[in-house]
Design goal:
By secondary structure, the chain is mainly β. It has helices spanning 2-12, 27-32; strands spanning 40-48, 53-63, 68-77, 82-92, 97-104, 109-116, 123-130, 136-145, 151-161, 164-165, 169-177, 188-193, 199-206, 212-217, 220-228, 231-240, 245-254, 260-267, 273-283, 286-291, 295-301. The strands form two sheets. The chain has a ten-stranded antiparallel barrel with strand order 1-2-3-4-5-6-7-8-9-11. Strands 12-13-14-15-16-17-18-19-20-21 form a ten-stranded antiparallel β-barrel. It is globular and about 65 Å long.
């Protein structure tokens, strides 16, 4: 059952916006077009001026008929502090500026308002936010892309925390997957706790071409890729464990509760099939997925 649970989780992450949401259709889309290069799956690392190291992963995709960009990610610092975050980027026709609004899992939040230089493509914003304890954090943030758009620098300066100088971050982002790859959330090392309370390691990584996601958990190997490039709500997977091996096919859709749900059909080597239903939803510093309303698994980042 563990391999089935893992494939359910991988499949739940293959949900995408419908095709109509990929088509441009407004002046907002035109103003945001220079940020098309930020769309994709990224990993980043860097440190603040005090030498505290940060690592994280982030994905950005088009939303709302290309009138907005939606991003989500997570980071961890050398102090083992963790945070998940989500944000939207929009064009404000009243102020004629690019605006960002975001929130973090530890109770913080932020907004950025700025402009994109039409010649250099550099995005400069004024950052204003708050920490989980309510202290205000401010500063200037610049995003500078490499010529091949496979990386960018995230530089913050002139920062203050509650009115006192604050060493904001300098980060380097590197693209790790193709545009809008839906399985970025599982990349990296995790701890998976099963319904019996047993916790085991769980690791995932992308293939070099970015089309498949590979995972290893509790002595089992998994591979998940799209069944059809034109229908990215469908995914195929292969698993091999100490006990069984075979093929799985799934179809995903958005769940009413705001997470994702998936129906999986397992084709076993003996010719029989098994059908399962799973629901995936975020929790602080990780994810929870429930199989057939009874079995609950949790993933938490190491």
């Amino acid at each position: 059952m563990r391999f089935m649970a893992t494939f359910l989780l991988l499949s739940l992450l293959s949900v995408r916006d419908p095709l109509w949401a990929q088509e441009a259709g407004s002046s907002a889309a035109e103003h945001l077009q220079p940020l098309d290069k930020i769309v994709g799956a990224w990993e980043y690392k860097g440190q603040d001026k005090e030498g505290v190291e940060f690592v994280g992963r982030e994905t950005v995709r088009w939303a709302f008929n290309r009138t907005a960009l939606k991003g989500e990610g997570s980071w961890k610092n050398a102090k083992d502090e963790l945070s998940d975050y989500e944000f939207f980027v929009v064009w404000n026709p009243m102020s004629k500026q690019v605006e960002m609004r975001g929130f973090t899992s530890n109770g913080g939040g932020f907004s950025r308002t700025g402009v994109i230089d039409p010649k250099s493509g550099v995005w400069t914003s004024w950052h204003a936010g708050w920490m989980e304890d309510g202290k205000p954090l401010q500063g200037i943030v610049q995003i500078v892309f490499s010529e091949d758009a496979k990386s960018f620098q995230w530089n913050a300066k002139e920062g203050t925390l509650d009115g006192a100088p604050w060493p904001l971050l300098d980060l380097t982002f590197t693209k790790i997957g193709p545009t809008n790859h839906p399985m970025h959330l599982l990349l990296g090392d995790w701890e998976m706790t099963d319904p019996m309370g047993v916790t085991t390691p769980f690791s995932s990584w992308l293939s070099k071409d970015g089309k498949s996601c590979f995972s290893v958990a509790n002595g089992s190997f998994f591979s998940v890729s799209y069944a059809d490039a034109k229908n990215q709500n469908a995914a195929e997977g292969y698993f091999k464990s100490f006990e069984d091996d075979g093929y799985l096919v799934s179809h995903t859709k958005t769940a009413a509760a705001g997470g994702y749900e998936v129906a999986v059909t397992a084709y076993k080597p003996d010719g029989t099939t098994e059908k399962l239903r799973g629901v995936f939803e975020p929790i602080p510093a990780g994810y929870k997925y429930t199989i057939d309303d009874t079995q609950v698994y949790q993933l938490r980042r190491k």
